[in-house]
Amino acid sequence: MEKTKILWINPINVDAYDQPMGEFIDTIRLPGTEVEVISFRGSIPLNNLEYRTFEAMTVADTVHAARYADEQGFDAAVIGCFYDPALEDAREISGKTVVIAPCQASVQLASNLANNFSVIIGQEKWRAQMSERIHAYGYGSRLASMRSIDIPVPDLQKDCEYTAEKIIDAGRLAIQEDKAESLILGCTCTFGLFETVQKELNVPVIDPIVAAFKSAEFMGSLKKQFQWYPSRKWTSAAPPEELIQSFGLFKNPPSIGNRYLLKEAL
Q: For this UniProt entry, which segments traverse the membrane (predicted)?
């Protein structure tokens, strides 16, 4: 069987999450899937995108990474942040590479498993931007609530037992008070915790890395089997190549600071 190649983009300027996320992805990937996990190289050591200001600093690198994914023959690319930063921009320039993002993948999956969902967010700051995304995707009517655990992104993996306890407490309130039928963990840095929470609360608990990565694998396989590539008609059209060249948009290599590779499993 022809292998599937997936690029996982950590849209930050530090490599702290590349190996841990790569190791987690290694536990869920199919045998025929190759994965490259990357983060960016930048003068500002951004280790989270909790603020729109931080996100704005990484948009150009994310777009360039999507272009790189197509040039290197990746079947799919994942933007590894639950804000889905620069998703539409990356899709416009990704050629034949399908671009996936965690929020969209998670709400799609949760809606296949339940009539509604609650999102467990790290901080209240996230609420407005994530709500906007979910409503823009057409899933606003399925959003039962958002519950904050008051833990910033850099601290989510510092004490996983404590983080899981906070998620369980917030999830229980979402189920009992907001009538949530499923839960979505609203940050990719909660990876590895969903099974503990799910066992305790007995509802589907969506890990956004799992949702996004498995969606990327699935879309990559559909692309190979049925030639379902991203559309380039009308509003999905990419910038004309002659303009890209005249502006010198991608004359320099992408700003990749680190790579973590997972070759095809034997």
A: none
127-164 core/surface letters (b: 16 or more CB in 10 A; e: else): eebbeebbeebebeebbbbbbbbebebeebbeeeeebb
* Beta strand 33-40 pairing with 256-262: antiparallel
Residues 188 and 245 in one domain: no
Whole-angstrom distance between the N-terminal and C-terminal Cα of the chain?
12
pLDDT per position as a tens digit, 74-100? 999 999 999 999 999 999 999 999 999
170/189 Cα distance (integer angstroms): 17
The residues near 179 (Cβ < 8 Å, ≥ 6 apart) are 116, 144
Identify the DSSP state of 209.
Answer: H
3-state secondary structure of 251: coil
Please check whether residues 118 and 201 belong to one and the same domain.
Answer: yes
pLDDT at 1: 63
Edge-to-edge strand ranges of the sheet holding 256-262: 98-100, 76-79, 4-10, 33-40, 256-262
In order, the DSSP letters of 210-242 are: HHHHHHHHHHHHHHHHH--PPP-SGGGPPPPHH
For residues 15 and 45, give the distance between their C-alpha atoms in angstroms, rounded to a whole number: 10
- CB contact at 8 A, 62 and 7: no
Query: Is the pTM for the entire model greater than 0.85?
Result: yes
Q: Which of 207, 229, 253 is the last residue of a domain?
A: 207
